[in-house]
Each structure stands twice: as structure tokens, then as C-alpha cells.
């Protein structure tokens, strides 16, 4: 079967869904192709921290109703080391910016509901998506859905298919530069059916390694504990996870971490990658398909949303005025923010984690840096600006 659309979008994660939503608001037609089932993408537990700009975009474009009701607005975070907690007050340090804790799968659910209600062509369980003719003015996507082979002719293709997607591979290797760094650790993450043990996020740097206390709702706690690169989830039975969390989050004044039934468990590896440029011909990469950051800065989903906001604006300009100028600067515009987020995520990661090669001096340096961050107003403000996403670069 042959079909046609203006923008063919691969991937129904936050990037692909938000792009389709923004394009529809500008009167631009798109088709979204997702390899997984709707149920799978709506249940995939990942990010939790939304920057102010992401929250604002959801409100401005009519998908913020549940976010307004259920999102937890946080005005600060805690950094914990040497048995003491230190609060960084985002709103005071940035002139009012906050972050909102709202699960990525909730964002995805809200966007899917909005797209389907608007009659969008959003296909799940699509197999064998392949990308063709991106150097021409009629790029195509081929795929199979419900046993039928489809060729979709597009004006543009958006590769929003995440880190393991196919779109990046459609660009000749010699046209790209790929910057990549792997960290020698990951995070064992759990979702526990229990009220959070603190009102705000806690980033803990301990001699045993990093730990993070986060949440999803008043009855769901999200916790992470640093693990070795060679670990598997079998190395982390529930008892070991709780034991490490208790040790790493402990304070001298007796912080009590409440345990609860673990309803989800997995390992996420920490790495950075950037593909430059984020465009080739009529193919545009957005979100994790183009770049990933270690999760310590809570930036991945926010970068994905920032990319597609730029892309939707540039496509709108192209359709309105036939001017290619905005599309031509898509990659450069996005990469400025991407590299700022890369640096911030790297900075947070190195400040808070234990590296295998660290010696006693390194630990002293980390503690000195942490003390500075929580005691100097300038340093704390710099962290707050980056974390809430208000810095313009
Ligand atoms: P996604 O969400 O990976 O979506 C890509 C979609 O494409 C589909 N796909 C394909 N579809 C069709 N054909 C193919 N060949 C396909 N290949 C792939 C996939 O099934 C999927 O549905 O990418 P997107 O949209 O760019 O969104 C990026 C975010 O998901 C990611 O950056 C964040 O989750 C990162 N992240 C965090 N980001 C934040 O901003 N704040 C956080 O607090 C935060 N915490 C995290 C995180 C990521 C984590 N993990 C698991 C890596 C915490 C963790 C633990
Ligand atoms: C989360 O709640 O999943 C979360 C919070 C902060 C991060 C990463 C993940 O830096």
C-alpha cells in the first residue's frame, strides 16, 4: 500500500509524540510509527523531572490538564554528603523557576490521548521501519503494520526513535561525527509502592557510591543506587538495594527511609553521546536518537522536547513561507542546548559518583566541590539555573 504525509515520524516517545502534537497545531499532517505496543510505551518507567519550559509547553499546547492536577512542583532539591543534607532553593536562586515531578509515561499517555482524540495517524506495533531517499525531496518510509507492507511518501522525516533506533543509521557515516563517552557505572532503579521519605529529591554522594531519592506521586517512591558496569540485575536482590539505599542516604540526625513493595526494577547505564549534525537532507534527528546524557542531570526528556519545539517551528516556517533558513539552522540551534546539558550532566555525574579509579584525594576534591556548591550563592545559583533549565546559551 502507498500512503502520504507531510512529516513521517519514527518513534512514539516524548519527542515523536510532542512533535506530532505541535505540527498538528500548526496545521501540518504527520504519521507516527512506533515499534512497541501502546500499553508498553505507556508503562515504560523512565524520567521524572520536567523543566519549567517543558511544563509551560504542555500547558500552552493544551496537554497540561492532568499535569496541573497531578504533577508535583518542587522548589528545591537536597544534596546529601558526609551525613548531612543541604538544600538548594531553585525558586530563590533563579527568580522563581521550579521543576515538576511527573512521570515520563504520564507525559506519553497524555500526548497519545491528545493525538488519538484529534484523529492522528499513530500506529503501534509497526515492524521493519526503513528510511529511504532522504537526500531527495520525497523521502520515504517503508514498514509493515498488521501484516501489510506500506510505503509512506513524506516531505520530511523526523527520527525520534531513541538511542537504539534506525533513523541515525540512515545517514552515511562519513556525514556524521559521533561523540561518545561511557561511564564505568549505572543505576539500579526501583519504583516502590510507598510514600516518599522526604518531600524533595535527594542526591546523595557517599563513600560507597551515589544514591538518589525521587518520587512519582504521594504513594510512589522512585529510588536509584549506583552499581558497577559489570553488574546485572541478578546481582541486586531487593534486600541489597534497600541496604545500600539506607547506608548511602543515612544522615547523622537519623534520616528514616521507608521501605515498600518494589513494583518495578531495572538498570540504566550512564553514558553520553552526541551526533553532529542532527540533520541530513530531509531527515531530522531529535531526542535520544541524536543525543543521550547521563541521567544525573535529569535532562534527557527535556532535551527531546526542546529539540522538537525547534523542529516544529522550523517546519512551520518552511510550510508557511518556503524559507529553508530555520530548517537549516535546526541542528546548530539544538546543539547549543545539547552541549550545555551534556556539560551539566557530566558535572553532576562526576561530582556525585564514585569512580573505580578514584583515590583518597579525589574523594576530598569531590567533597570540597560539594561544600562549595551548597554554600556559595553563586555556585548554588549556577546549579539551579542549569537544573531548572533557565540558562540561555
Ligand atoms: P524514547 O523515549 O526512547 O522514544 C523512542 C521511541 O522510538 C521507538 N522506536 C522505534 N519505533 C519504530 N521503529 C523503530 N525501529 C524504532 N526504534 C525505536 C521506541 O520504542 C520508543 O518508543 O526517546 P525520546 O522520545 O527521544 O525521549 C527521550 C527520553 O525517553 C529520555 O531522554 C529520558 O527518559 C532520559 N531520562 C530522564 N530525562 C529527563 O529529562 N529527566 C529525568 O529525570 C530522566 N531520568 C532518564 C531518567 C532515563 C532513564 N533511563 C531508563 C535511560 C531516568 C532513567 C533511569
Ligand atoms: C527520576 O525521578 O526518575 C529521576 C530524578 C532525577 C534524576 C534522574 C531521574 O536526575
Structural description of this entry:
The chain is an alpha/beta fold. The chain folds into two domains: 2-72 and 103-179 and 271-347, FAD/NAD(P)-binding domain, CATH 3.50.50.60; 183-270 and 354-388, D-Amino Acid Oxidase, subunit A, domain 2 (D-Amino Acid Oxidase, Chain A, domain 2, 2-Layer Sandwich). The protein contains twelve helices and 21 strands. It has helices at residues 14-25, 38-43, 52-60, 65-70, 90-94, 104-117, 238-249, 300-321, 325-328, 330-352, 360-375, 377-388, and strands spanning 2-4, 7-10, 30-33, 49-50, 72-74, 76-81, 84-89, 99-101, 121-123, 127-132, 140-145, 148-153, 156-159, 177-192, 202-206, 209-217, 220-228, 262-276, 279-280, 283-285, 291-292. The strands form four sheets. It has an eight-stranded mixed sheet with strand order 7-6-15-16-17-14-18-21. A six-stranded mixed sheet has the order 9-3-2-13-20-19, covered by helices on one side. Strand 11 and strand 12 form a beta hairpin. Helix 8 (300-321) packs antiparallel against helix 10 (330-352). The model has no long low-confidence stretch (mean pLDDT 97).
Amino acid at each position: 500500500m502507498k500512503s502520504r504525509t507531510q512529516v513521517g515520524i519514527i518513534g512514539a516517545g516524548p519527542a515523536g509524540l510532542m512533535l506530532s502534537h505541535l505540527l498538528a497545531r500548526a496545521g501540518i499532517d504527520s504519521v507516527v510509527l512506533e515499534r512497541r505496543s501502546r500499553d508498553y510505551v505507556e508503562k515504560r518507567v523512565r524520567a521524572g523531572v520536567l523543566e519549567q519550559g517543558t511544563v509551560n509547553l504542555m500547558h500552552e499546547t493544551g496537554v497540561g490538564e492532568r499535569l496541573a492536577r497531578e504533577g508535583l512542583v518542587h522548589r528545591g532539591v537536597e544534596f546529601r554528603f558526609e551525613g548531612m543534607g543541604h538544600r538548594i532553593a531553585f525558586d530563590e536562586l533563579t527568580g522563581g523557576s521550579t521543576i515538576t515531578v511527573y512521570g515520563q509515561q504520564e507525559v506519553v499517555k497524555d500526548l497519545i490521548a491528545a493525538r488519538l482524540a484529534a484523529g492522528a495517524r499513530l500506529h503501534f506495533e509497526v515492524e521493519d521501519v526503513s528510511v529511504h531517499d532522504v537526500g531527495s525531496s520525497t523521502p520515504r518510509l517503508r514498514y509493515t503494520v498488521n501484516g501489510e507492507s506500506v510505503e509512506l511518501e513524506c516531505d520530511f522525516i523526523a527520527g525520534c526513535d531513541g538511542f537504539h533506533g534506525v533513523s541515525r543509521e540512515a545517514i552515511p557515516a562519513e556525514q556524521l561525527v559521533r561523540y561518545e563517552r561511557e561511564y564505568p557505572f549505572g543505576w539500579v532503579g526501583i519504583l516502590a509502592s510507598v510514600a516518599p521519605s522526604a518531600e524533595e529529591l535527594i542526591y546523595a554522594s557517599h563513600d560507597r557510591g551515589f544514591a538518589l531519592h525521587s518520587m512519582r506521586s504521594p504513594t510512589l517512591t522512585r529510588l536509584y543506587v549506583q552499581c558497577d558496569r559489570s553488574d546485572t540485575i541478578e546481582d541486586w536482590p531487593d534486600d541489597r538495594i534497600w541496604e545500600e539505599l539506607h547506608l548511602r542516604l543515612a544522615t547523622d540526625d537519623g534520616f528514616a527511609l521507608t521501605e515498600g513493595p518494589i513494583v518495578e526494577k531495572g538498570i540504566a547505564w550512564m553514558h553520553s553521546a552526541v551526533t553532529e549534525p542532527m540533520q541530513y537532507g530531509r531527515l531530522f534527528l531529535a531526542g535520544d536518537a541524536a543525543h543521550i546524557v547521563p541521567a544525573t542531570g535529569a535532562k534527557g526528556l527535556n532535551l527531546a522536547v526542546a529539540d522538537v519545539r525547534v523542529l516544529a517551528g522550523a517546519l512551520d516556517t518552511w510550510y508557511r513561507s518556503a524559507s529553508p533558513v530555520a530548517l537549516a539552522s535546526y541542528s546548530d540551534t539544538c546543539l547549543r542546548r545539547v552541549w550545555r546539558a551534556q556539560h551539566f550532566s557530566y558535572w553532576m555525574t562526576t561530582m556525585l559518583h564514585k569512580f573505580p579509579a578514584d583515590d583518597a584525594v579525589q574523594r576530598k576534591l569531590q567533597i570540597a566541590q560539594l561544600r562549595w556548591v551548597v554554600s556559595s550563592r553563586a555556585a548554588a545559583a549556577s546549579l539551579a539555573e542549569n537544573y531548572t533549565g533557565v540558562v540561555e546559551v
